[in-house]
Amino acid sequence: MEAKKTKFLASVSLIIIFLILCASPLFAANLEVEKAVICEEIVNREPAKKAVVFRNGIERIYCHTVLEKIKENGVIYHNWYKRDRLSSRIKLSVKPPRWVTFSSIQLRDYDNGPWRVDITDADGNILKVVRFSILD
Length: 136
What we know:
four-stranded antiparallel beta sheet; alpha+beta; 55% strand; Immunoglobulin-like
């Protein structure tokens, strides 16, 4: 009887470990971010005037993202944060096997400070974080 109980508990433990691993971002990822940059322009679907520090007065700024190892049609999100507060969340479609996409936001005179874009999958898993600043 004790042997059956031990075997049962071992089986249950293995199932729990398997479920935890399958739920982790390592196993859940259906795509990878090859490259993500912030830039002032997009020219022929490529980033132009890339930087990590931008001067105030730019009207629009872009997050250009290259994704690979995409297994199926889906979505990602560009979550734009100013000083750790969500400013904009933009849904972008992606298709296999490789996809180039971008989003943009319009800047205002009072948008100085630290910014970041969290690139997430449909489940909210962070794939990449891109940081930049707007200065006077």
